[in-house]
TrEMBL record:
<feature type="transmembrane region" description="Helical">
    <location>
        <begin position="59"/>
        <end position="80"/>
    </location>
</feature>
<keyword id="KW-1133">Transmembrane helix</keyword>
<protein>
    <submittedName>
        <fullName>RDD family protein</fullName>
    </submittedName>
</protein>
<feature type="domain" description="RDD">
    <location>
        <begin position="19"/>
        <end position="145"/>
    </location>
</feature>
<dbReference type="GO" id="GO:0016020">
    <property type="term" value="C:membrane"/>
</dbReference>
<dbReference type="InterPro" id="IPR010432">
    <property type="entry name" value="RDD"/>
</dbReference>
<keyword id="KW-0472">Membrane</keyword>
<feature type="transmembrane region" description="Helical">
    <location>
        <begin position="25"/>
        <end position="52"/>
    </location>
</feature>
<keyword id="KW-0812">Transmembrane</keyword>
<dbReference type="Pfam" id="PF06271">
    <property type="entry name" value="RDD"/>
</dbReference>
Length: 253
């Protein structure tokens, strides 16, 4: 299995396992089945338009077909943070090749260029590109600066490994915890956990910078009430977030 190592500006290195052409093709088949199902429903709904005015019905169907085939990938990859139905079932995810947050513009570019990758038939151009590229990128990925990675199953870490047992104030807000879990990617959760496990290996300045960056990222995703965040350090904020992400139970000491 091929992988790439990404080094953050704070000096934290993490590895991403790249998805190969075969598993990506399986995910594509699932997505194609979903698209065919939706377009079949649309064609059935437009049945009356075909009867009344065949030309208008055909034109309307072609417009909606294009919107579905292109919009499907854009919509779900943005909604599910780099995943479509097929990718979710096969545990794949689109990610920025430099480890940054995936942007909507990247998602749009890689999906708009699918028609090029699909030439001349059944993604022949895209398939050849993934075989020749060391990061298994099709042309759309190269243009967008993205890679498709495998999403590992995340084990449950031992709470004792990430510091002395303290009460996680985030657990008082289960709705916000659930929102945090739904919006934080496995890559981001793994990076935060790795930073906590390796925090003693960092010098003081690097340690402060790493947890400031991580806490800032989580604060952008979900806003917890200031009464539980104003009096804790960035490192404790990240620790609380990790406990919430991995559903770790902590008790009042």
């Amino acid at each position: 299995m091929h992988s790439i190592n990404i080094r953050t500006p704070e000096g934290v290195i993490f590895s991403l396992n790249l998805a190969g052409p075969v598993v990506r093709m399986l995910a594509l088949l699932v997505d194609m089945a979903a698209i065919i199902t939706v377009t079949s429903v649309i064609r059935s709904v437009l049945g009356l338009a075909f009867i009344i005015n065949p030309d208008f019905g055909t034109a309307l169907f072609l417009i909606l077909y294009f919107a579905v085939t292109v919009g499907y990938g854009i919509f779900f990859e943005w909604l599910w943070n780099g995943q479509t139905l097929g990718k979710r079932l096969l545990r794949l995810r689109v990610a920025d090749e430099n480890g940054h947050r995936l942007l909507f513009s990247q998602i749009a570019v890689r999906n708009l260029l699918r028609f090029v990758d699909s030439l001349p038939v059944f993604y022949l151009v895209g398939g050849i590109a993934t075989l020749l590229n060391r990061r298994a990128q099709r042309l759309g990925d190269l243009a967008a600066g993205t890679v498709v990675v495998r999403q590992p199953r995340v084990g449950m870490p031992d709470v004792e490994q990430i510091g002395e047992t303290k009460y996680n104030s985030f657990s008082d807000y289960p709705f916000l915890e659930a929102r945090l879990r739904s919006l934080v990617s496995p890559k981001e959760a793994s990076l935060a956990l790795s930073a906590l496990l390796r925090r003693n290996e960092l010098d003081d300045n690097s340690r402060l910078t790493v947890f400031q960056e991580l806490a800032g990222r989580f604060k952008q995703i979900v806003i917890f009430p200031p009464e539980i965040t104003d009096d804790i350090s960035d490192e404790q904020f990240v620790r609380n977030a990790v406990c919430s992400l991995y559903r770790l139970n902590t008790q009042q000491s």
